[in-house]
Write a structure and sequence with these properties.
The complex is a heterodimer of chains A (680) and B (120). By secondary structure, chain A is an alpha/beta fold. Chain A contains 29 helices and 10 strands. Chain B is built from 3 helices and 6 strands; from the N terminus they run H-E-E-H-E-E-E-H-E. In chain B, strands 1-6-2-3-4-5 form a 6-stranded antiparallel sheet. The chains are: A alpha/beta (680), B alpha+beta (120).
Chain lengths: 680, 120
């Protein structure tokens, strides 16, 4: 039996979904779009219930991609029962969707969620009466604590058995004239179409509202129908004359009128509303002067936590990986297989796994921010700035996450509603200097600018941000000129996130990250290892310069010669495509100094010495760092971009424009620098 | 005694700030056919001209396109009381309370919402 979960954003829908399905979840994408599809199983009284968590929507009017998706799901592939999750502390607006579902005539059960908040605010709801008024069972739940799941499942089973709820019989009165037009249209439709998957009334209303897409989906033969093409505009004109404010206003007004009437009968308040709690907190958090600094403080805390608390576990994992490497290395017979497993697989994958603690903590922090409601305030504060770049306030958090790692940052763009905003943000995230590039900076800045390393690195970070801003502005006036989503955004009341739900959300995202990146990195590491280990001569591993990758590096070096890079740098850039840290380890290998590639404060150490002796000028070193900052995102990021955009085209574009930009900037720096007399 | 105190300073500090500055009074029809800077006879003005604490309700939503429908569906329908809570530090967007929840709107969107003072 299939059950669809719908509801407003911030209504606790996903929390309820997690409560109902626990660990038995499967995440994928809706076909053809990059919207996440979550399904999960729950066993109830020896029946298997397949729950599908649909994206949060405010309405089914198909304004956004998510709304279209939900509406299409309901009319083209309807489940056996729909559970609408309603935020009990925000009934009026939530019930708007309910009205639309009622008109669609689906078998409906209402999960009145956050019931604890409703009560805490001093309200009392007559759920039984409300059920009768809307024609669907209303079950109180508190998803974050797990209350109400049993009665909900019972109601779901019961409704499925009944085959429908009474909701089909309930209707909103749209006023005399509109009702007349609706009936006339219904009559006409009846004569021209059979076996409609949706109620005639629903389709009639949608047509009058101007929704041609609905017609296409449920009765495609009627699209070209001449009669309809004449009938419909005539109706609409008549109505426009009678209602100058427009049909949309009338319909919305009537629906809310229905809701108000129902709530009048069922909702009573016994003590004064205590909602001001959230407002009081907001006095500080979105304060004119304090708001921004506080926000920056929270971000800073988040990153501190990520690195501080992540440092120790990171060390453990590093040790464990190293131990695994040496023990396997000792057990397996020497030779290519040993090399492959130890250096290729364990080295490559180990490099990614080591970041797991950081990723987990970062995701936990993000979950807490989101679940508490603060994320919306962050977007509220930052929107003006973001808008100036052509972005949305909600883009700020993903961009900031880019300082840690681009991969979760790209995944975080899911919170953005419009595809255009998402795409734009994704395109500029990799320009922000992620933590993987830091080893490269430390090495090169430490070697070539020994006493000013800190400043140089800081400037690189700033430069990255400036590039991101510039690119954002450039793209939003050229390629992605569409205006982007309007801002209208709900600021949900502050809620105390339960540890349970936040950990779950964190784990959701982290496991996705691991699964997808792990497989790709594994494959890539093997390939890179292979390119470096062959062709063998006399049964021995080739010297770096003779391996495939070395040859490839030498082949492309003409392109990079004007930048002053030698072939070792070229090869490192290639291997750096897997992960930016690999640049450093590759150089260690190429210069034969082994794994020790640290550079101390005075530029001492084996690798720095080797680098200095290799004839690279400080100017080229700077150009190299800029190149690493800007060029193609690492493999994990490329995969993330591909998954989030769903398009080869944009992924390749990302790789291409960044590399071109990197080359251009590096070249400019070298040229200008030599003209200024700083170069070789 | 009160003359020496800069009340505006305190008001700003406590967050009781004024809203966006009203547009210059040109009198010419603006983007949505609405005359900026000059209030209609019955006190109508766009939401973006309102300040914190104004006692107002929605008259109508001007403009068109998907944003128009979106605003209506989110509960900003004629006759609904609406309260301006505050403007963001950069004066944009603004936070309002309507139908029991808080919504943030850009000034450009708030300009489409025509409100009038509620009768006391």
């Amino acid at each position: 039996m299939r059950v669809g979960l719908v509801g407003n954003p911030n209504s606790g829908k996903t929390t309820l979904f997690n409560e109902l399905t626990g660990a038995h979840q499967k995440v994928g994408n809706w076909p053809g779009v990059t919207v996440e599809k979550k399904e999960g199983m729950r066993r109830y009284r020896d029946r298997d219930l397949l729950f599908c968590d649909l994206p949060g929507t405010y309405s089914l009017s198909a304004f956004s991609l998510e709304e279209t998706l939900v509406r299409d799901y309901l009319i083209l592939d309807p489940p056996d029962v729909i559970v609408q999750v309603v935020d009990g502390s925000n009934l009026e607006r939530n019930l708007y969707l309910t009205v639309q579902l009622i008109e669609l005539g689906v078998p409906l059960v209402i999960a009145l969620n956050m019931y604890d908040e409703l009560q805490a605010r001093g309200y009392q709801l007559d759920a039984k009466l409300l059920s009768e008024l809307i024609g669907a069972p209303v079950i109180s739940t508190v998803a974050s604590k797990g209350y109400g799941t049993e009665p909900l499942l019972a109601a779901v089973a019961q409704t499925a058995q009944a085959g429908s709820s009474r909701s089909g019989e309930i209707r909103v009165n749209y006023g005399l004239e509109l009702e007349k037009e609706i009936s006339a249209l219904e009559l006409w439709l009846q004569g021209h179409v059979q076996n409609l998957a949706v109620p005639l009334r629903w389709l009639a209303i949608r047509l009058l509202e101007g929704d041609r897409d609905a017609l296409l989906k449920v009765a495609p033969d009627l699209v070209g129908n001449d009669e309809r093409q004449k009938l419909l505009p005539r109706s609409q004109d008549r109505l426009k004359k009678l209602y100058p404010e427009g049909l949309e206003t009338l319909i919305a007004d009537r629906r809310y009128g229905f809701i108000a009437g129902a709530l009048q009968e069922t909702l009573k308040r016994s003590i004064p509303d205590r909602r001001e709690y959230s407002e009081k907190i907001d006095r500080f958090l979105t304060h004119r002067l304090l708001g921004m600094p506080l926000f920056l403080l929270f971000l800073w805390l988040l990153f501190q936590a990520t690195f501080r608390f992540g440092a120790a576990p990171m060390g453990w994992i590093e040790t464990a990986v190293a131990w695994l490497g040496t023990s396997l290395g000792g057990i397996l017979p020497a030779g290519p297989l040993n090399d492959l497993i130890v250096n290729g697989i364990i080295g490559g994958v180990g490099g990614v796994v080591v970041f797991l603690p950081n990723i987990l903590i970062l995701f936990l922090g993000i979950s807490l921010l989101e679940d508490s409601g603060y994320m919306a305030r962050a977007a509220f504060l930052m929107d003006k700035l973001m808008h100036a770049i052509g972005l949305h306030g909600k883009s700020f958090i993903p961009l900031i996450m880019g300082f840690g790692c681009g991969v979760p940052a790209i995944m975080a763009t899911r919170t953005l509603e419009s595809r255009r905003d998402r795409l734009l943000t994704i395109l500029i995230i990799p320009l922000i200097s992620c933590s993987a590039r830091l080893p490269v900076y430390i090495l090169f800045a430490g070697t070539f600018f020994p006493h000013r390393a800190g400043n140089v690195i800081f400037l690189l970070y700033i430069f990255g941000v400036l590039m991101a801003i510039g690119a954002g502005k450039l793209f939003s006036i050229s390629l992605l000129r569409a205006k982007g989503a309007p801002f209208v955004m709900e600021l949900p009341p502050y809620r105390m996130p339960t540890l349970r739900t936040s950990v779950r959300h964190m784990w959701d995202r982290a496991s996705q990250y691991l699964r997808k990146m792990g497989t790709v990195i594994l494959a890539a590491s093997v390939i890179v290892w292979f390119l470096g280990a062959f062709p063998r001569s006399n049964g021995e591993a080739p010297r770096a310069a003779d391996s495939f990758i070395g040859q490839f590096g030498q082949a492309i070096s003409p392109a990079l010669d004007p930048l002053g890079f030698n072939w070792q740098l070229d090869v490192s850039l290639l291997t750096g495509l897997v992960a930016k840290e690999v640049v450093v380890s590759t150089m260690g290998v190429l210069y034969g100094v082994g794994e020790d590639n640290s550079a101390d404060a005075h530029g001492g150490g084996a690798l720095p010495t080797a680098l200095r002796g290799s004839g690279i000028s400080p100017l080229s070193a700077l150009a190299f760092m800029l190149f690493v900052l800007l060029y193609s995102p690492c493999l994990a990021a490329i995969t993330a971009i591909w998954r989030e955009t769903g398009s080869w085209k944009w992924t390749l574009f990302s790789v291409g424009y960044q590399t071109a930009l990197a080359w251009g900037i590096a070249y400019a720096v070298v040229k200008i620098g030599s003209m200024a007399g700083l170069g070789p | 005694m009160h003359k020496g105190i800069n009340w505006r300073f305190f008001n700003v500090l406590l967050g009781r700030s004024a809203g966006a500055k009203p547009q210059p009074a040109t009198g010419a029809p603006g983007r949505f056919g609405y005359r900026w800077g000059r209030q209609q006879a019955d006190g109508e003005k766009p939401l973006s001209h309102c300040h914190e604490g104004d006692n107002i309700f929605i008259r109508r939503v001007a403009g068109g396109g998907p944003i128009h429908r979106r605003l209506l569906e989110m509960g900003l329908i004629p006759g609904t009381p609406i309260r301006v809570i505050k403007y963001a530090p950069l004066k944009d967007p603004l936070e309002c309370e309507v139908k029991g929840y808080h919504v943030a709107l850009r000034v450009a969107e708030a300009q489409m919402i025509i409100v009038a003072p509620a009768s006391p």
